[in-house]
Amino acid sequence: MRRWKLAVFAATFGIALTLPVQAQWKWRDKGGQTQYSDLPPPAGTADHDILLRPNSGQRKAVAAALPASGASVATRAPLLMPKASEPELESKRRQAEQEQAVKKQAEEARMAALHADNCSRAKAQMRTIDSGVRMAHTNEKGEREILTDTARAAEAQRARDVITADCK
After folding, report:
1. 69, 52 contact by CB (below 8 A)
2. pTM over the 0.70 mark
């Protein structure tokens, strides 16, 4: 009886050790080197360069069930993606996507505000340059220098470039 329990324990332990191996990807990179990982290969890796997938039997069954006529990879891709079986995981994924979308919108709004501020400053600079008022700046020594015609033209060109880039 004791030997039987030991044999069952050893078999269970052996199976438990092989489970992580089944979740491995194997592919050939652009340099021809064979790569192993528990993560899928990088985007752009050709299908014929993927040597082993974690659930390769399941993938073959799905691929065999697809019609062979004219179905593109883009139309087949959603069928190959595993569905989330747990509602908690799905809701967490949706929540993370929403948070990411909110962050992206906030960043876009911040960038739009920066562009608008740069635009208004550049337009004000152009108005000052076009008015003909004498302009000065401070040099490295802290001394005030009046802008020459060449420096004034360079400032005008810089302001025009900013207006072109930020005023849309």
Report:
1. no
2. no
